[in-house]
Amino acid sequence: MDIMYKSTRNAQNQVTASRAVLNGLAEDGGLYVPEQIPALDIPLSELADMTYQETALAVMKKFLTDYTEEELRYCISHAYDSKFDTEEIAPLREADGAYYLELFHGSTIAFKDMALSILPYLMTTAAAKNQEKHEIVILTATSGDTGKAALAGFADVPGTRIIVFYPKNGVSPIQERQMVTQKGKNTCVIGIRGNFDDAQTGVKKLFADRELKKELDQKGFCFSSANSINIGRLVPQVVYYVYAYGRLLSMGKIAEGEKINVVVPTGNFGNILAAFYAKNMGLPIGRLICASNENKVLFDFFESGVYDRNREFHLTSSPSMDILISSNLERLIYRIAGEDAEKNAAFMEALTKTGSYRITEEMKTGLSDFVGGYATEEQTADEIRRLYEKEHYVIDTHTAVASHVYHSYRQTSGDSAKSVIASTASPYKFARSVMQAIDPSCAGLGDFELIDRLSDTSGVKIPAAIEEIRTASVLHDQVIEINEMEAAVKRFLLS
Ligand SMILES: *Cc1c(COP(=O)(O)O)cnc(C)c1O
């Protein structure tokens, strides 16, 4: 059965999966959603014996129905290979009564690699299938990790260019260094004087600008997105929840059909939405626990039914979650509004105009799968130290937010279902915050001294992604104002 994708803001706007991947964002500003969530329809017992690659094929062929199985096999085998430093691709580590799903073993050591190592293959395959003659320009806003993962995926891929906008003062020093040292003639990395929300809003504006679209069309370019607004990012993220369930079965930790909880440190709501899709495919998931840092707009939303971005923005030690406009929440709002594009569009318009909206009581009942929680900066640091002292396991700041929220949920709710915590980044990416949490005497050390100290402390080998940037030269040093994004794009493409 073919699954088509429609816009959350206009039911008339329907495209194939490969077209949705190419477009990134729908023309009306909406996000593409599958017209229905396909069923997993393989016996759970079989999951236990499947490799990551086999699981990926089983899940992705259900969603991306206009790709042939051969095409998907090609994409999967090229994406999930020795770029990952573990054979399992996504190992599951048990610590202190929870299961940490380590999603950071790819080439840029954050979970963004799970989807962004396959997106370039899905994209170029889609371009060939749709006889797309334009050069594809990937426009990306990043809170720190998407940028590098997308750059690594798209660097020197023929027929593509990639432009990344990051908040100049809103990413970790390691994250920034990873991006500004990126090689590849088709790459462009630009710092903006603003935060992630400014970058993301700016990118969405460029997508919506018809004049610009026409001008670039004539010069042979079209835009697409590597952010989780692209369905080609979301679908590969469903895979690892299914895979984790299989691992728990094969490890004998759960019985077939036993429900697990999933805990996700959340920013743009992409990763947890993928878990929600996995649940809707039939994977036995109980609660979806949405963990925020001090930018707890989602926690407040789950509590009150009011989404309100009018609040102070905090720069935290988990910068990839410093987000007040969680784009992918739109896909959930659309769904709990009864897949009513007009109703959803009205909420999104209110968000743009006033910065907030309130959902109806009826819609609230659609949120019962979700639990919100958050961690303060102090609780995040305490959790890193606690887990290290108890288990000798070092986690990054984002994972620590989730870990704190999980343990406090478990204590207050009494819900002791086995739980998988999405471990979204290597601690090496946030070495300063992590080492300061474990050993405050590290405060005076330089970034790479901290890396070496972290290696001694954790006993984990320094990843290649870090060794690479120690001596790499800076190749991108542009910093611009928010209102200069369009000019910067034109400069890169047309000069
Ligand atoms: C992007 C990111 C997140 C947030 O994921 P969303 O899909 O945006 O909710 C959490 N942790 C890390 C390390 C990230 O890079």
Top keywords for this entry?
22 helices, single chain, about 500 residues, Rossmann fold, binds pyridoxal-5'-phosphate, alpha/beta, about 45% helix
Structure description:
With 495 residues, the chain is of the alpha/beta class. It has a domain of 248 residues: Rossmann fold (3-Layer(aba) Sandwich). The protein is built from 22 helices and 16 strands. α17 packs across α18. The protein starts with a strand and ends with a helix. The relative contact order is 0.14. The structure holds pyridoxal-5'-phosphate (PLP). The site of pyridoxal-5'-phosphate has 16 residues, from α12.
Distance between the termini: 46 Å
Q: Bound small molecules, which ones?
A: pyridoxal-5'-phosphate
Described by strand count, sense and barrel closure, the largest sheet is: 6 strands, mixed
Runs in which pLDDT lies below 50 for 5 or more consecutive residues are none
The percent range for helix content is 40-55%
What would you call the shape? globular
Q: Can you name the CATH architecture of the domain at 92-109 and 232-461?
A: 3-Layer(aba) Sandwich
The CATH top-level class label of the domain at 92-109 and 232-461: Alpha Beta
- CATH fold title of the domain at 92-109 and 232-461: Rossmann fold
Instruction: Briefly note the structural class of the backbone.
Output: alpha/beta
Sequence of strands across the biggest β-sheet: 4-5-15-10-11-14
On the 0 to 100 scale, the average pLDDT is: 96
Over all CA atoms, what is the radius of gyration? 21 Å
Q: What proportion strand?
A: 15-25%
Number of strands: 16
Specify the number of helices. 22
